Amino acid sequence: MDAVVSTLSALAVFVNTTDHGAVRSVHGYRVVAKGGDCGWEKWVEREFAFSPSSCRELPAPVVAPRLLSADWVGRPVYHEGKMVGAWRCILAFDSVAAVVPPPTPPPMLSPSGNPGLMSVPSLYEDLNEVFQFQNSEKVPELQCDPDEQSTRLDERERTSNEIGESDSDSDDDPQTGEGLPEPVQKQRRANQKYIASITLVDIAQYFHLPIREASKTLKIGVSILKRKCRQYGIPRWPHRKIKSLDSLIHDLEYVIDDTERDGVQREKAKHKKKEREMEKEKEKHDAIRALAKRKKMLESEKETITLKPALDLMAETKQFREDVFKRRYRAKNIATR
Question: Which of 42, 60, 216, 259 lies 20 to 30 Å from 233, alpha-carbon distance?
Fold first, then answer.
C-alpha cells in the first residue's frame, strides 16, 4: 500500500455563547488506500482562540467538556444552530449526511473578514475545501514583466490626466479648481544600496508567504522582488508549492495521530475479534505505516524546495495531490446533490 488519501468528509464549527473569543471545530476525514476498497473515517476536535487582531489554535488535548465525547458511538451529524452545552454551531458540512453548508461562510471564518484565519492552517485548509476561497487566485505570480507593468501604469495615469483636463475645460469657473483630480502622491522608492544588499538567504525565509506579503516585509516593491528572484535563478515564487506540501503534510499528520489513538483503545478487546476484523485491523496498521512514509517524503521534498526553489514537485507528489483533489471534488459533489 504505497499511497493513502484522506478527504474531508464533514466539518462543524461552534462558538461559545459565554466566551465570544472561543471557537471549536469537529473535522471528519475519509481515509482510503489508493487502488483499494478498504476505507474508514477518523474524527478530530480542535479548539481556537479568536480576537480582533489574531487567531491561533490551542494545543491539544481539547479542554473538557468536548464536542466529541470519549464514549461517542456512530457518526456524529451536526447542523447549524445546534447547541452542545454552551457551544452553538455556526457552520455545518457533511458529505455523507447531505448537510450542505451556506453559500458563504460567516465573516469570522472568511479570510476577507478575518485575515488572521490564514495563520491557522488546520482550520483554514478545511474551510478552503468547502468554500474554495482561492478560485480567483489562479494567475501565476512571476509571469508579469516589470517593464510591461510600468507601461500599463503610465497609460492609466495618462488616461486619468486626460479625463481630469476635459472635466476642467467644461467647468463654468476654471479658476476655482473644482472637479480636478487630487495630485497622486508617489511612494518613496527603496534605497538602491538596500536592494543590492538583499541576498538569497534574506529572501528564502519568506518563501512560505505570498509574494506581496513578502515584499511588504522586505520593504521593497513586488517588481523589485521578482527581479531579485530572477537574479538568483528563481523563475516563480515558490509559495504555492510549499503551501501545497504543507497542506498534504497537515492532513496526513491528523489522520496518523487519530488512527494511532484509535488502535490503542481497541487493543484490550483484540482477543475477541473475529478473523475478518483482524484483517481490517492489519490493513489499518499497514495504512498508518504508508501514511508515515508518505509524510516523511513530503517533509523531505519541502526542505529541498526551500533550499532550491526553482525545482518542480516530484511526479509522485503531483499524482498524490491529484488523487486528493479528485476525492475532495467527489465529496463536494455529493454534498451539493
Answer: 216
Query: Under a CB-based contact definition with an 8 Å cutoff, are residues 215 and 222 in contact?
Result: yes
Confirm if 254 and 262 have CB atoms less than 8 A apart.
no
HSE (side-chain half, CA atoms, 13 Å) at 192:
0
Phi–psi pair at 144, nearest 5 degrees: -80, 125
Name the grid cell of 22: 472561543
Tell me which residue of 233, 226, 231, 242 sits closest to 143, measured CA to CA. Answer: 226
Query: CA 209: distance to chain centroid?
Result: 12
State the pTM of this model: 0.47
Count: domains in the chain: 1
With respect to residue 125, please indicate whether it lies within any of the assigned structural domains.
Answer: yes
How far, in Å, CA of 95 to CA of 109, rounded? 20
Range of the domain at 54: 4-131
| 112 within some domain | yes
Residue 63 lies in a domain: yes
- Which mean pLDDT values do the consecutive 10-residue runs of the chain (337 residues) have? 75 90 89 72 87 78 80 84 90 90 87 82 87 56 47 50 44 45 56 85 86 89 89 87 82 65 53 67 75 81 81 82 77 71
Residue 309 resides in a domain: no
